[in-house]
Design goal:
- Helix content is about 5%, strand content about 45%.
- It folds into 3 domains: about 90 residues, Dockerin domain (Type 1 dockerin domain), CATH 1.10.1330; about 300 residues, YVTN repeat-like/Quinoprotein amine dehydrogenase (Methylamine Dehydrogenase, Chain H, 7 Propeller), CATH 2.130.10.10; about 290 residues, 7 Propeller (Methylamine Dehydrogenase, Chain H).
- The strands form 13 sheets. A 6-stranded antiparallel sheet has the order 6-7-8-9-10-11, with no helix packed on it. The protein has a 4-stranded antiparallel sheet with strand order 1-54-53-52, with no helix packed on it. It has a 4-stranded antiparallel sheet with strand order 2-3-4-5, with no helix packed on it.
- It is mainly beta.
- The protein is built from 4 helices and 54 strands.
Length: about 700
């Protein structure tokens, strides 16, 4: 023990000499109670640093703003916004000051400014009554303009933070603001379909440009200041004389919407991003179409943001498939893709808890190492016909050898979970697969579809094993009972149907919900079935009698329910950003988990109950440390695997005491409270389980 006492201070002292930046980005800026964040959130704006070495990607305010190294694609930093009071809003329109010293971004009711060198927050300019959608620095860097959903443009003194003026006139959200290169004119493009020009010095209104027939999403001045370009929902780009306000030219894109546009730094090239995933390029002198960068090679996705590097050689495009793509402007070749993901529909742990799979709205399944947070595989990233085919559900077989997926195109796919090779496909056209579940013995896969069918697939052969179960109402969720004898289906008509798996015979209907049942789950002992509905209710049913034993009140539609492995806790998520943990026996709320900035679509406990994975519409998966909220199972603390939490486990734990996540040799399994340091809080959790045997189940 004396050796250990001397070892602990030595490790702590050594930690001061380690590089903090070595920490993996999945652990940057985490919400309280989480172990890791998989994914980086929605893309809401992009810009290059003045020297072109970094790319800034704005996203959810609850997460922050990501900085990437352009050459390597590596994450450099995550800028957090202090005093963020509205987690489901976004940062937007990141922009550097002309001298490169300050980075600004719009947010909820304000503009956040950071020191570009240190990443420290400098100030918040508050005054808007709603989200700020667009910001722009004046050419001399002294003034910042902000346009927001409150229909106003506000001018700020950058040095003092003083609110200088409010420009009014637009009748809808101001989607884009821009200063002319000489700083004399400020332009604002609005969803009211107009562009307004103001004198930047006096705030006087100069002109209103009205030729667009729908919302204006983006505006940009040419580098010489002679032309103002505007992109609109009417599918056109209009080029205006910046001095007179006269329409010079209209570019017909043949696309539905034009969301973003930019001039190259030398003014020779003009680009715009469109609704259908196409980036169009023009010669900005002759206005002849040059080429296009087609993101539809991967999927149909709106290109919401475009930005040129300072040297004009690289174009960055950000789209709603959750990716930022870097293109070589001359060759048109894709240089690099920075992935931020689409909305998460489903998450699943492997039986050993070491792997997590997620299926998203952007035609992709991602496979993660739970311990390290590293992405290990990407599956299904080539949608049929170029269309975005969401993966609605993913599940591992009980032996961990197979991963199954169900998607909106009616396809069930089986993947080898060792090699990640595709094994089999079964497709039912015009029948979106909303849920998949393996039988406890792993021989069958049940799938529930929007057509009202529950089908059973032989996992070995990939063929149907029985006549489908048909019901007049669509199936949102399916689950096998732990003994494999019963399959439950949650339906659009508000009912839960129970069927005999062997005979295919109907067993009973559970009624009580008044709207769609979106989620069903059996308790580990098979005695209870939980169901969550659009009626804001979670109901706990006695599986044998069909009696409704408890009703738990949620605050929004319920999308996901999951029992802990010991059956004592029920996790519930829905359209709001919070996850609620309920005591199954008492029906009392245990706690509320806050960290996502979008609705919760999927929940699953790790097999040992120590971690809860939550998939969200905010494009991320959070891994929550359940040891902070519920009593851990002894197996979590049986470090030496001898089926008991004893003295040998204590010695292993003490050998790590004092080690932090930035230290070499840090092992996350000993950081029981997930705070990044193995300390006294972890000791209290360990002590509570000391001497307990590990259940063979």
């Amino acid at each position: 023990m004396n050796r250990i006492r001397f070892l602990i201070p030595a490790i702590i002292i050594f930690s001061f000499f380690l590089d903090v930046q070595a920490q993996d980005y999945t652990r940057w800026g985490l919400p309280k109670g989480t172990r890791a964040r998989l994914g980086k959130g929605e893309i809401t704006g992009i810009t290059f640093s003045p020297d072109g070495s970094q790319l800034v990607v704005a996203g959810d305010m609850g997460i922050g703003i990501w900085l990437y190294d352009v050459d390597t694609g590596a994450e450099v930093a995550l800028l957090k916004g202090h005093s963020v009071r509205f987690s489901s809003s976004n940062f937007s329109s990141p922009v550097f000051s002309p001298d490169g010293g300050t980075l600004a971004s719009g947010g909820f009711r304000g503009i956040w400014l950071w020191d570009a060198a240190t990443g420290q927050q400098r100030a918040i300019f508050e005054g808007h009554s709603s989200s700020v959608v667009s910001v722009a620095f004046s050419p001399d860097g002294g003034t910042l303009a902000s346009g927001g959903n409150d229909r106003t443009i506000r001018l700020w003194d950058v040095a003092t933070g003083e609110h200088k003026a409010t420009l009014e006139g637009h009748t809808s959200s101001v989607a884009s603001v821009a200063f002319s290169p000489d700083g004399s004119t400020l332009a604002g493009g609005s969803r009211d379909g107009t562009i307004r020009l103001w004198d930047a010095a006096t705030g006087g209104h100069k002109a209103i440009l009205t030729d667009h027939t729908s919302r204006v999403y983006a505006i940009a001045f040419s580098p010489d200041g002679g032309t103002l370009a505007s992109g609109s929902r009417d599918g056109t780009v209009r080029l205006w004389d910046a001095a007179t306000g006269q329409l010079k030219r209209t570019l017909e894109t043949q696309e539905i919407y034009v969301y973003s546009l930019a001039f190259s730094p030398d003014g020779d090239i003009f680009v715009c991003g469109t609704e259908t995933g196409v980036v169009l390029l023009w010669d900005a002198v002759t206005w002849q179409r040059k080429k296009l960068f087609d993101e539809r090679t991967t999927r149909f996705s709106s290109v919401a943001f475009v930005a040129f590097s300072p040297d004009g050689g690289t174009l960055a495009s950000g789209s709603d498939d959750g990716a930022v793509r870097l293109w070589d402007v001359v060759s048109g070749q894709l240089k690099r893709t920075l992935n931020h993901w689409s909305s998460i529909n489903s998450v699943a742990f492997s039986p050993d808890g070491g792997t997590l799979a997620s299926g998203d709205w952007g035609s992709t399944i991602r496979v993660w190492d739970v311990l390290t947070g590293q992405l290990t595989e990407t599956l299904g990233d080539v949608p049929i016909g170029g269309n975005e085919i969401p993966f609605r559900s993913v599940a591992f077989s009980p032996d961990g050898s197979t991963l199954a997926s169900g998607s909106n195109d009616g396809m069930v796919q089986l993947w080898d979970a060792v090699t990640w090779q595709h094994r089999a496909t079964r497709r039912w056209p015009m029948s979106a697969i909303r849920s998949v579940a393996f039988s406890p013995d792993g021989s069958r896969l049940a799938s529930g579809s929007g057509s009202g069918a529950i089908r059973f697939l032989d996992v070995t052969t990939g063929r149907d094993t029985a006549t489908p179960i048909w019901f007049p109402s669509g199936v949102n969720s399916v689950a096998f009972s732990p003994d494999g004898s019963t399959v439950a289906g949650g339906h659009e008509d508000g009912t839960v149907q129970l069927w005999d798996v062997v005979t295919g015979q109907f067993k009973k209907t559970l009624t009580g919900h008044e709207d769609d049942v979106n989620a069903v789950a059996f308790s580990p002992d098979g005695g209870l079935l939980a169901s969550g509905s659009d009626d804001l209710m979670i109901r706990l049913w006695d599986v044998v009698t069909g009696e409704n034993k408890k009703v738990l009140q949620h605050v929004t539609s319920v999308r996901a329910v999951a029992f802990s492995p010991d059956g004592n806790t029920l996790a519930v998520g829905g359209n709001e950003v919070k996850i609620r943990l309920w005591d199954v026996v008492t029906g009392q709320l245990i706690t509320t988990l806050e960290g996502h900035s979008g609705g919760i679509s999927s929940l699953m406990f790790s097999p040992d109950g120590s971690t809860l994975a939550s998939g969200s519409w905010d494009h991320t998966v959070l891994l929550w440390n359940m040891l902070l909220y519920i009593t851990p199972q002894p197996s979590v603390l049986d470090f030496d695997g001898d089926s008991a939490v004893g003295f040998a486990d204590f010695l292993l734990f003490v050998s790590q005491f004092g080690v932090s996540e930035d230290d070499e040799g840090y092992e996350a399994q000993f950081d029981l409270d997930g705070d990044g340091t193995i300390g006294f809080g972890d000791f209290l959790i360990f002590a509570n389980a000391f001497g307990k045997a590990v259940s063979s189940n």
